[in-house]
Amino acid sequence: MGLIQIEGMEFYAYHGHFAEERVVGNDFIIDITIETSLEAAAASDDIADAVNYQEIYNLIKEEMKVKSALLENIADRIINAIYIEFPDQIRFVKVKVSKMNPPLNGKIRNVSITMSR
Question: What is the pLDDT of residue 68?
């Protein structure tokens, strides 16, 4: 077993509780940790035996295009998409979704949620 971690994926997307957020958009950062078996890929040195990081990134990129009111919804969709795409390879997924400069009437770098399954 091992962990794949993809950190600091940056997206400009249109998520938020307020209608204006879904029109104007904002910067988001996604971090993901995936538990999977790494032994076959380590032994073979063949991408066919690995969970392909590019495919994970592309799944997340597609989910970030779907407008959502809540960060929780984004994280849940990302987790679902990964389990659907890699049903036999993934044992655990943890996703952190951060919204940069949220409209909270103060100077706030970001708000984040973390979900796992």
Answer: 95
